[in-house]
């Protein structure tokens, strides 16, 4: 299938098997993230939090540690939600002409990259350049 992007002709050659492999990877990652988000804090993180705060002899440093663990868990959950949203957006683009085409250079993104990260919008080279130029602009919530 060929498409036009930013004035360049781009060829995407994904077999039906390649697309099914990407669909399966996307569905699997979505299912995993959905379960993780639904569960919220894992049992062990919740137990650590309760164990620290539940001690009768705890002091302010124990309380600070418990709050920090809670913040860390919230940040992980926030990351999971953002990844889930990116995967849902990729799912919407999956059958469109722009899926699998790098938003920076317009080249086809290798299938192996899409299987590893179905939400990938850039080829490896462009993603590396993006991360170098945007390295200090993290989206973390801590």
Relevant terms:
single chain; elongated; mainly alpha; two-stranded antiparallel sheet; 142 residues; disordered N terminus; 61% helix; 5 helices; Four Helix Bundle (Hemerythrin (Met), subunit A)
Name the CATH class.
Answer: Mainly Alpha
At the fourth level of CATH, the homologous superfamily is DksA, coiled-coil domain
Task: State the low-pLDDT regions, or none.
Answer: 1-6
Spatial arrangement of strands, main beta sheet: 1-2
What's the CATH topology name?
Four Helix Bundle (Hemerythrin (Met), subunit A)
Rough outline: elongated
State the secondary-structure class.
mainly alpha
- What percent of residues are in strands? 5-15%
Mean pLDDT: 79
Instruction: Describe the main β-sheet briefly.
Output: 2 strands, antiparallel
Q: Which radius of gyration do the C-alpha atoms yield?
A: 20 Å
CATH architecture: Up-down Bundle
Number of strands: 2
Helix and strand pattern: EEHHHHH
Please report the number of helical segments: 5
Cα(first) to Cα(last) distance is 43 Å
Overall number of domains: 1
Helix content: 55-70%
């Amino acid at each position: 299938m060929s498409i036009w992007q930013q004035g360049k002709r781009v060829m995407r050659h994904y077999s039906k098997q390649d697309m099914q492999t990407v669909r399966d990877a996307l569905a699997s990652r979505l299912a995993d993230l959905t379960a993780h988000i639904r569960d919220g804090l894992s049992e062990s993180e919740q137990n650590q939090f309760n164990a620290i705060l539940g001690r009768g002899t705890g002091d302010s440093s124990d309380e600070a540690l418990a709050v920090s663990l809670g913040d860390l868990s919230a940040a992980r959950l926030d990351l999971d939600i953002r990844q889930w949203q990116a995967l849902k957006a990729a799912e919407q683009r999956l059958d469109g002409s722009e899926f699998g085409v790098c938003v920076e250079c317009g080249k086809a993104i290798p299938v192996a990259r899409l299987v590893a990260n179905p939400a990938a919008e850039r080829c490896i080279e462009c993603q590396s350049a993006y991360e170098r130029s945007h390295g200090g602009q993290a989206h973390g919530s801590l």
